[in-house]
């Protein structure tokens, strides 16, 4: 007969809690990072869609009651941003520019710049969005700029472009 002794281990409390924390912390960081990047992509896509709608509205020369063309375009963009540009100060981030198709590097300004055949560019510039996890990014906001452009349609014979 052998002389063996059975060693009984004491139940060690806290091991499960330690293992959970070692798994949960990196898992939470990954989920938060994925949500952070996904939200930024969603915001940029929403802004891009809004400026595209502004260009579609601009090329047809439509205007809202009591507003000129540029103000109407900005209102359309603001209405399509899902509340991201909801304040009056946010209208300064929306820009409407016109270019002559022969020289797209020079902006056409003044009356008649929205003449048929010119290129209209609608943009949202300087939109800032904070990160969900500011500690990882030192609290620096993300700057987003989105652009869309198209050629202005022709007007009915004798019609004049609306005020800018």
3D architecture notes:
The structure is a single chain. The chain has one domain. It contains 2 helices and 4 strands; from the N terminus they run H-H-E-E-E-E. Strands 2-1-3-4 form a 4-stranded antiparallel β-sheet, with helices on one face. A hairpin with a 2-residue loop joins strand 1 and strand 2. The longest helix is centred in the first third of the chain and has 45 residues. The protein is rod-shaped and about 115 Å long. The chain starts with 14 loop residues before the first helix and ends in a 13-residue tail after the last strand.
Structure, briefly:
With 164 residues, this protein is of the alpha+beta class. It has two helices and four strands. A four-stranded antiparallel sheet has the order 2-1-3-4, covered by helices on one side.
CA-to-CA gap between the ends? Answer: 105 Å
Order of helices and strands: HHEEEE
Q: Bin the helical content.
A: 25-40%
How many strand units?
4
Task: Describe the secondary structure blueprint for this structure.
Blueprint: H1 15-59, H2 69-79, E1 94-100, E2 103-108, E3 119-129, E4 142-151
Antiparallel strand pairs: 1-2, 1-3, 3-4
């Amino acid at each position: 007969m052998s002389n063996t002794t059975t060693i009984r281990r004491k139940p060690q409390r806290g091991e499960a809690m330690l293992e959970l924390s070692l798994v949960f912390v990196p898992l939470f960081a990954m989920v938060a990072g994925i949500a952070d990047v996904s939200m930024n992509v969603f915001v940029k896509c929403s802004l891009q869609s809004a400026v595209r709608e502004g260009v579609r509205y601009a090329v047809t020369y439509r205007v809202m009651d009591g507003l000129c063309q540029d103000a109407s375009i900005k209102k359309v963009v603001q209405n399509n941003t899902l509340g991201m540009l909801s304040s009056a100060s946010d209208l300064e981030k929306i820009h409407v520019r016109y270019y002559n198709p022969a020289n797209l590097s020079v902006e056409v300004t003044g009356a008649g710049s929205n003449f048929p055949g010119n290129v209209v560019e609608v943009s949202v510039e300087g939109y800032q969005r904070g990160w969900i996890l500011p500690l990882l990014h030192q609290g620096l906001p993300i700057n987003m700029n989105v652009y869309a452009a198209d050629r202005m349609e022709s007007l009915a014979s004798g019609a004049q472009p609306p005020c800018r």
